[in-house]
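Fold this sequence, please.
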Amino acid sequence: MYEPTNNRRIGVTRRYDLDNNKFYVNVQYDSLMLPRVVKIFSDMKSGTQFHDMCIDLSLNITERLQTRKNPQRALQVMASAAPRRSDGTASTIQGIIVDELIKSYYLEN
């Protein structure tokens, strides 16, 4: 299991939109530049359902990425479980984030 050796991590933040809701994804990397921590923020007020859902998703994705030495398998498992629209695109925040991390760990376009 992955264990951090220091408390400062390199990270990148990107903005995404889903159903007229903006959310921001911050991915933090270990010393090998593998994604280990995902934090999701919304522009909703603290305590709203969407805000709380982002916190839950952050913890869920982070736990799965830290469970394996190489996070690629965890991403593949999450991607296969994500609900999808008829065109194959992810229909949830978690699905969007996982798809983006599979394309590029660094959320490059």
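The domain at 10-103 is CATH 3.30.390 (Enolase-like; domain 1). The chain has one domain: 10-103.
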